[in-house]
Amino acid sequence: MAEAAGRVKAPEVSIIIPVYNEESTVEWALRDLVDKLRRIELEFEIILSANGCHDRTVMVAERLAADIPELLVIESDEP
Q1: Are 41 and 16 in contact (CB under 8 A)?
Q2: What pLDDT does residue 77 have?
């Protein structure tokens, strides 16, 4: 994603995904999406918005974000 003069190139696409209590599916869904986007060599970012989750959705997503630099997790207490 690096560009000349040390600037970061803007992603070609931004994907915003709202989630609510998706602990059982969020890892599979994100890994599948990232795999597909990387295969087509698209510059992308994924913003996961976790709103008022009562399960481990945020914990799973933050663990994934440590391995997936294109992933940003945003958490809110309200759905």
Answers
A1: no
A2: 85
Q: CB atoms < 10 A from the CB of 43, how many? A: 12
What's the rounded Cα separation, in Å, for the pair 10 and 15?
13
Q: Tens of pLDDT along 10-62?
A: 899 999 999 999 999 999 999 999 999 999 998 999 999 999 999 999 999 99
Burial of 12 (0-12, 13-18, 19+ CB in 10 A): exposed
Residue in the structure block whose two tokens are 């060599």: 41
Distance CA 23, CA 38 (A): 24
d(CA 22, CA 42): 26
